[in-house]
Amino acid sequence: MRDELDAQRERLAKQLAQDRRKLLSDRFAAISVQLGDDSRSARLAAVYGLAGLADDWDQPDEAGQRQTCIDVLCAYLRMPVAPYPGDKACAEVLGPWRAEHEVRHAIVGLIRAHLLSGAHKSWQGCDFDFTRATFDGGSFKDAEFCKRVRFHGATFRPGNGAEVTFEEAAFRPGCEVEFWGATFAGTRSIVFRKAKFTGGSVMFRDAHFNEGAVVFDDAQFTGGKVDFSGAEFSGGEITFRHARFGGATVLFDNSTYSDATVGFWDTKFKKGQVSFDRAAFGPGSGKVDFGGSFFIGADVQLETAAYNGLSVNLAHVSGSRPPKLPPGPRRGLSRPSKFPSAAA
Predict the structure, then answer these.
(1) Domain tally, the chain
(2) pLDDT one digit per residue (tens) for the chain, 344 residues
């Protein structure tokens, strides 16, 4: 009798599991259709429904179904979107743009919410593919990145003045956040203020920065790699004001600059590496500023950069391990008259 009851319970459990999976699969099919509706409210409902469905796929063997829901949300962001038409555009143009803008920002907001530490349903074990997507704002503030996020060929533009922010985000060991070939246009394009780089990699290889700003102010680099190798900077600046380097590798190798500034104001270099190997600066158009910075253990390399018009400011620096500079005089290179030791 007991064996028969156990068998009945097992059959019932299997049937319930099958019914549950069918119900979730049917929901996915319906939501996917709704996501293509012309109505803003219908698309918004589909976005939230898809996020809820991803949360409901919470069994150990259902990671693939959850990833599929996330893939659909990311695919929506990868679809072409019209640029901001301007405040003076007619209602027939501005209205649909704002509606689409709201849907896209809802997706970014939901992804961020699921990447926060302590999220009720965490998506930190999932991958996110934003290849060739367009971002005209959106916040990943406080998010924790543990796996792969791809922004290959993505475009970050100011839109209606919004910025894309990774402020206070954490990049953990094992993460791969890739901005390969991305384009940053407009002011204050992307913000990493107070971000923590404890491992993994954040790649800006071959990215294009056009009049934009990348802000790493007050960020902490204690591990991993941030790589700008091969990037092109045309106007704008990258700022590391009050940043702390304690073990990470930051590379600007083979990058090119035209009327651009890299600012390490009041920054502490204790460990790790910062390299401008074979970086090229156009005539009279580049500046690397270490004003007020402190050097004690990090390997900061500037000796092989192409100094055609590069201005390097080392005013008011201190520490025991100065950056590596080329021998002899260089136009625009302000060497400190002395390099005293200072307390950490």
Answers:
(1) 2
(2) 667 766 666 666 566 666 567 877 888 899 999 999 999 999 999 999 999 999 998 888 888 999 999 999 999 999 998 887 777 888 887 888 889 999 999 999 999 999 999 999 999 989 999 999 998 888 999 999 999 999 999 998 766 556 788 999 999 998 999 999 999 887 566 899 999 999 889 999 999 988 778 899 999 999 999 999 999 988 888 899 999 999 899 999 999 888 888 899 999 999 899 998 988 877 656 788 888 999 888 888 887 776 666 677 877 888 877 788 766 555 555 555 455 444 33
* Six token digits for residue 161: 């003045």
Shared domain check, 303 and 154: yes
Q: How far apart are CA 204 and CA 134, in angstroms?
A: 16
d(CA 162, CA 150): 21
pTM of the model: 0.86
Residue of 249, 258, 303, 296 lying closest to 276 (CA atoms): 303
- Based on the fold, state whether residues 16 and 63 are members of the same structural domain: yes
Question: Is 136 inside a domain boundary?
Answer: yes
